[in-house]
Every structure is written in C-alpha cells, then in structure tokens.
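[User]
Protein folding is very new to me. Any chance you could explain this protein sequence and its structure tokens? I have pasted everything here:
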Amino acid sequence: MEHNNTKVAKPLRVILWIAGGLALLLLTMAVTILIQQLFRPSQPAALPTESPTATPEPTPVPDRSYDSSSRPSFEPDTTRLGMSSEEIESYGEEYLSSEYWLDITPEELTQSTGCSVIRHTKLGYSYIVWNGDYYRLGEGDDGKGVLDVILCDLNADDQPDILYTYHFGTGSDAQTKVGWFDFSTKTSILSPFGMQRDFIALNQENGSCILYRCTRTVDENGGFALHFTDRIGEVIEQSDSLYLMLD
C-alpha cells in the first residue's frame, strides 16, 4: 500500500509545482505592470486645438444709382456733339433735346473738376462737358453708352482722372470696356480688354481701381442702377495704356 501511495503523490507534487510557478510568473508580471504605471512620466494635458483663422468675407460693394429722379436733365449744344449734320437730321432736333439726356456726374467729380458727364438715354452717345467743350466717351453709336464713372488719379500725377465703363454694340456683338479720360491731355484712352455680353463697373478701393461684373436695372426715364457681383481684377495704367490684372 505504501508503494502505491508514493506513485500517486509524485505526479500531484509535479502539478502543484507547475501551478505554483505559473502563479509566481503571473504575480511577477502584474507587479511589473503596476510599477510601470506608477513611475511612468505624466503626460502633459492636451492643448485645445485652435480653429483656423477664417478668411474675412469681402465687404460687398453697395449698389450705385444713376436714378433719373435725382438727376438733372441736360440741354446739349448739338453743334458740339461731334455729329454730322446728316446724323443730327436723321435723329431730329427733338430726339437730341434735354428730354433724352441725363446728367450722371458723380458729386465728387463735380466738386473736383466742375465738369459734367452726360449720356443719351436711348442712344449710345456719352460726353464729358467741361468749360463749354464736349469730349466723347466710348465708341459706337449704339449700346448703352457710359455705365459707370469714378474719379481717380490713375497715373499718380496728382491730377484728377475719370475712369469709366461703357457699353456698345448689339446682340451677341455687344461688349463693355473701360475708358480713361485724362484731364491733362483732354483725351480718352480706351482699354484693349472688355467683357462680351456682360456689364462691368468700377470701384476705388485703397487707392486702386477695381473692376467688377455687375447687373443693371433701368427706370422708366432712362436712369439706372448698378448691382455689383463678382470682382474681376485691378485696372492699372502703364505708358498711357490700360491693363487689367486679373485676381
């Protein structure tokens, strides 16, 4: 009997030895992990993420009005319009009378130069009237004529200049360009660039002349308002020529 008990007890001791070893291994691992947690360097608190600075929205350009209700009519001297006698006769003196001419001079232009900007409400004729003389603006005898007028010093000579946009042509051939009237030479310089079938207008921003697309609404007496939409670029002058720097 004693011999059989010895045989049974021996495997049991082996099992107990193995179990004890596993328990000791697990305990050692647990203690190691605990020590690592206790002595791990503390992590700095996460800083709040700064939201990226939003690009400021451009300030919209307000509508510009050439409303006929606030504009004086103008009685032109037809002999100074640069029209041939045949043209004047074909249109008729009545059609060229004050009823069809609108003074669209900006107030600052009147105060600075004493000139007037007039346009025919039915034809494409537009003029600067200055010291009794008439200076034609734009080209062509059809279209809308002058659309927009601003006062600026485009060539930085400390003399006032007029920058304007004008519309000419009909249908698919209609376009709008930029013109520059230089008071020192009393001449208009026309841009080589233009917008086909779109209206364009100008705005002076931080000393620069900025070109915009615009829409146009007309009142019953030929006055109108411009509604600025997309910015196109900056109009600059070099060597007595106009250039457009696209955005």
